[in-house]
């Protein structure tokens, strides 16, 4: 997510020609977009980070269900 925010910020700074970003080439921004695409489409899946978040959420729900079940018995 920080990468996407950086791309948006650079686009806005370049578009409105603010400070030194007025001379920034759009190719740098396009290169960041390509990097972000490759990262989110291939690298995250390769490392398994896309599934890790889903597994963590499932684990939290399971723990809450078990805790709730044991609390009702008391």
What does this structure look like?
- The structure is a single chain.
- This protein has one domain (2-73).
- Helices cover 82% and strands 0% of the residues.
- It contains three helices and no strands.
- The mean pLDDT is 89.
Low-confidence stretches: none
Helical run tally? 3
Q: Tell me the fraction of residues in β-strands, as a range.
A: under 5%
The N- to C-terminal Cα distance equals 44 Å
How many whole angstroms does the radius of gyration measure?
21 Å
Largest sheet: none
Can you tell me the number of structural domains? 1
- Could you report the average pLDDT, rounded to the nearest whole number? 89
Helical fraction = over 70%
- Helix-strand category: mainly alpha
Element-level helix/strand string: HHH
How would you sum up the global shape?
elongated
- The total beta strand count reads 0
């Amino acid at each position: 997510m920080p990468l996407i925010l950086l791309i948006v910020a650079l686009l806005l700074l370049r578009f409105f020609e603010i400070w030194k970003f007025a001379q920034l080439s759009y190719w740098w921004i396009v290169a960041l977009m390509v990097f972000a695409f490759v990262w989110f489409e291939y690298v995250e899946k390769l490392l398994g980070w896309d599934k890790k978040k889903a597994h963590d959420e499932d684990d939290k729900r399971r723990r809450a269900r078990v805790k709730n079940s044991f609390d009702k018995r008391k």
